[in-house]
Amino acid sequence: MTPTPSLSADVLIIGGGPAGLAAALSLSRQLFRTVIFDSGAYRNSRSKHMHTVPTWDHHDSVEYRASARKELLTRYETNEIVERKVETLEKLESGHFQATDATGQQWTGKKLILANGVRDLYPDIEGYDDCWGRSVFHCLFCHGYEERGSDRAGLLAVDFMAQKQMAMTVGCMAKNLAKNVTVYTNGNTEFASEIKEGASAQNLDIDTRKVAKLQHVDNGSTGVRVKVHFEDGDADKLGFIAHTPRTEPSTPWHTQLGLETTPTGDFKVNQSFGESSNVSGVYAIGDTGNMFKAVTIAIYSAGAAAAGIASSLSQGR
Question: Tens digit of pLDDT for each residue in 230-246?
Answer without folding.
Answer: 999 999 999 999 999 99
